Amino acid sequence: MERGITPVELKSSLEELMRLTTMTIATVGGDGEPHAAAVYFDQLDMYFFSDAHSQHTQDTTQDSRAAAAVHPECSGWQDIRGLQMRGSVKLVQAQDEWQEAWELYLTKFPFVTDLQEIVALNLLHKFVPKWIRWVDNRCGFGFKQEWELSEEERSGVSYLTWTQSIGGKDISGSSNG
Q1: Contact call for residues 46 and 129 (beta carbons, < 8 A)
Q2: pTM score > 0.85 for this model?
Q3: Neighbouring C-beta atoms of residue 68, cutoff 10 Å
Q4: Of 38, 84, 37, 86, which is closest to residue 64 (Cα–Cα)?
Q5: How far is CA 158 from CA 49, 89, 96, 116, 176, in A?
Q6: Domains (ranges, CATH) in the chain?
């Protein structure tokens, strides 16, 4: 039996998911072949580092479209929950944005301080969602809620931007509830 979700419960659930460390990023190469890779990401703006020669970096250089998923490990179907997203990946080149992202990344992953030389050899990317689906079987089997972000909302989108919007108003959203 599905139950209603309050904005506070929704925001809390999304914050819990964004505290996770790993997201799967899926891309399609120039040859049409799909590829998925697990990457560490910071919880605010979905920044992640990758080698310039990695498959997903090569893919997003040709076509910035990507999908991403964030979910905890679950032992039973009743606990399945997570975010499914579609959007694009952009390379972060502006020094001020890079520095801000680095500081956010260090907050979530303090061990990276010891890996600065390795990180310096990698590129900083940002996944920018345009469509988000929240799935949470704790709310009922197959429960999901979806949001589509407009171009304007995506231009400066961050996790905080869309969770505040979701908690406060509908962003062209729909629910199966």
Answers
A1: yes
A2: no
A3: 23
A4: 86
A5: 17, 13, 16, 25, 25
A6: 7-175 (2.30.110.10)
